[in-house]
User: Fold this.
Amino acid sequence: MKTLIAYSSKTGNTRRVGEAILKAFPQGEIKDIKDIDNLDYDLIIVGTWIDKGTADAKALKFIETIKEKRTAYFFTLGAFPNSNHANDCIKNIDKLFLDNKNTLIGNFHCQGAIDPKLISWMSELPAEHPHSPNKERVERWEEAAKHPDKKDFENAYNYFKNLV
Assistant:
């Protein structure tokens, strides 16, 4: 099965998860979204980092070009993988694929380190801002900094190996 793993990665997290997934597809290719010039594949797997509850802008534009294909996706996010935010991201990204009449066969997500520039920006926010640092948020940032880890890579590989 000719498979494309297309990714958008800001910090390298999403690219590294994509590389782990590639091992499940002997005839697979992995490419940065900016380097893709055709969609002639049996399966297109899109990797994105999360921005404002959905795929990042580069991935959003790419997903818009995928129509009536067999697809799956994966993402990394700073929030906990079992959070309401992660569930909202799944709903939002599912909709992107399904609106273009794609066959969506699955998705995977894991926590990923947050861009240090974003943490620096949020650290300067006033206390009343919804993204300002508090004990819980700082602990989540610290946990996210440990991901993706070896277990996340194994889980991604196993998920996609078993998916097809």
